[in-house]
Structure formats: structure tokens, C-alpha cells
Amino acid sequence: MTSLTTPKGAGLSSVSTGRKIKDKLVQGFVYLAFVLALVPLLSVLWTVVSNGVARLDPTFFQFSMNGVSGKDPGGGAYHAIIGTLEQVLICSVIAVPIAVLTAIYLVEYAGNGRLGKVVSFFVDVMTGIPSIVAGLFVLALWLLTFGFEFSGFAGALALTILMIPTVVRATEEMLKLVPNDLREASYALGVPRWRTVCFVILPTAMTGIVTGIMLAVARVMGETAPLLLTIFFTKAINTDPFSGPQGSLPTFIWEQAADPNQNSIDRAWTGALVLIAIIMLLNLAARLVARRSAPVSR
What we know:
single chain, mainly alpha, MetI-like fold, membrane, Phosphate transport system permease protein PstA, transport
């Protein structure tokens, strides 16, 4: 009598072969998507580098545009580099503590409370605010209502509004990834919640938190619209962010690119290259710091 049963292992073999084919197809699509994503990135980098190296000389880093017209070959972005670094530093000093503490409250303390939901809602609202609206808010409140003058600090306040929600969401997600076993083990030893947050949860999530902070820094460092409304324009060097108009790399690039002279366009490309390089160096430094401060697993 002929057996109607499937030979042992035949079904598993066909299923395994089908899964392998699907796995290879999906893997191929993933690699293809990765290559497609690299195309615009490499294209932008190549365009900026190839056009920006023309004016990448010591003069560009040592001099400002004070007294230099658009058609002149000299001039540099020293005033803009100083302004950008000071504005982003002030913005980070204000935004990072507020954002990290907000995320800690939402994850560790708020629970399902009404206040936590309200805070989370307003963070979502701030995430979708256009950058120019942040600049208009600071212009209306800080400059027109309170009567302060255009300054780098006013620009830093506008950037702070844009930076806070990004850091809050990044920190919140990183804190949620910390296993609850670590929290429970700490509480079981009688450690207070604030010490658990400071010495267990934050060190565990530090690498991701720093990465989120650097993404936020990269975002605000390239913002132009809010700075046009708050720091005004200057070609001179102003190292005091609390007094008078101050330059920045985004406004420098915008101003130079608007001039049809080739010398101005070359300076704009070099400014964009320097801005990208600063962001990359900050990311590298932050990764090194986060790696050293992360807890060592044994």
C-alpha cells in the first residue's frame, strides 16, 4: 500500500528554502535602500567640499568681512564662526538641562497623571513649530516688548525654543529603553528614586542621550530664519553675545550666497563646508565623551 504521508524533513526543507529566499530578498531591498539613501548624502558632501575648498585658507578663519565688499577676493568668516559657537553654547546651556529634566519627569515621575499628559502635549506642539515662528516670538517678546537690542543672546533664545523638544523626545526614548530590572534592583536595595535616576538610569542611557543632544545641536546650528530676526546683520567681529548685532555662519552663508559675485559665492560654499565640519567635530567629541562615561558591562 502506497503511503500518502510526506517524507520526513521534506516539508521543513521547502519551508526553510522559502524563508531563505524571502530573507535574501528583504536583505537585498535593505541594502538597496541604504545605497539610495547614501546617494543624496554623498552628492551634497561632494558638492560642498568641491566648491568650498577654493577659499579654505587661513584668511577665511582669521579675518571678518568688515570693510570687504562682495567683489573683493579677501575677507573671512571669523566673526560668523565666533558668533555661531557662542550662540549654540548659550542655547545648549539653557536647553539641555530643561529638556533632560523634563524627559526624566515624563518617564520616571509623571506616570499617567494629568500634568504629564499636558507637558507631553506641549512638547509635541513645540516639535512642530516652524523655526521662523520661534524667531518671531523672541522678536516680539524679548526685543519689542522688553526693549532689548539685537544680540547673539536673542538668537540663542530662539534656538533654545527649537532645541528643547528635540532633546526631550530623544532623552525620553532613551530612558524608556533602560530595563525596569535595573530600577527594581535599585529600589529593592533601598536607594531613593532620585539617586536611582542619577546613578543608574542616566549613566545607562547616557550614550543615547548625548546622541540626541548632538542631533538637536546639528539642527539648530544650521537654522537661519530665527537668526535673521534676532541677531540682525554685522560684518564686524563681536565677541559679546549680550550686546549688539552678532554674526553667525547661517546668516553669513545666506548673505554671501545672495551676492552674484563669484568671490561671495565662494565664501558661501566655504562657510557651508566649515559649518558641516564643526557639526561633525562636535558629534565626534560627544561620542567620545559618551563612550567614556558609559557604564562598563562585566
